Amino acid sequence: MLESIQLSGLVTMHINDWANWQYMHWFVISMLMVVWICVMCLTRTIRLGKKIPLYGIDWIGLLLWTVMLFAIVFICIYGDFTTGWTACRFAPAL
Fold this sequence. Notes:
This protein is an all-alpha fold. It has helices at residues 2-18, 22-42, 59-78. It has 3 helices and no strands. The radius of gyration is 22 Å and the shape is flat. The two termini are 42 Å apart.
């Protein structure tokens, strides 16, 4: 793992000096595609147990928790960039 972190820094600096910063995104996407292909080719698709149906899940509760957590993240992160608690865009999140 340490080798990949050091290699990542070297590649980032080389791309930064050589080309536009947006090429780093394309490089990362291409490396993730390589990893995805390796995972798909090198792992087996064996299911140890039978499929479990999703009938007993409280989908409305899941939706409410998701909305609440996204509202908290919105207030905490983007509150630094705007006027904070007094901004009109935070009123629906509160």
